[in-house]
Design goal:
This protein has helices at 3-33, 35-39, 49-80, and strands at 42-43, 47-48. The chain has 85 residues and is mainly α. 6% of the residues are buried.
Length: 85
């Protein structure tokens, strides 16, 4: 495997690991680990923020994460000349 291919896959894996870290923080961190401190914050008519993250906020975060991943992968593909036309 040449150096460009190794650099591409290294950047690709780094992006995937970063997305997994954000996913873990949003789903497990905000929905479970930090739920009690977040519940002291009320939003949208009095709902606790920890509950909101566990029920709906994580879904919004995941959808945003999908778009960010696709955008960053397109940038990465263009940088290494492997983009789809």
């Amino acid at each position: 495997m040449n150096n460009d291919a190794q650099a591409y896959w290294k950047a690709n894996i780094r992006l995937v690991l970063g997305c997994l870290a954000v996913w873990f923080f949003i789903s497990y961190g905000c929905g479970v680990l930090f739920a009690e401190p977040l519940n002291s914050i009320r939003i949208l008519g009095g709902y606790p923020l920890g509950f909101w993250f566990a029920q709906q906020g994580s879904i919004y975060g995941f959808v945003i994460l999908i778009f960010v991943y696709a955008w960053r992968m397109n940038q990465l593909d263009k940088k290494f000349g492997v983009q789809e036309d």
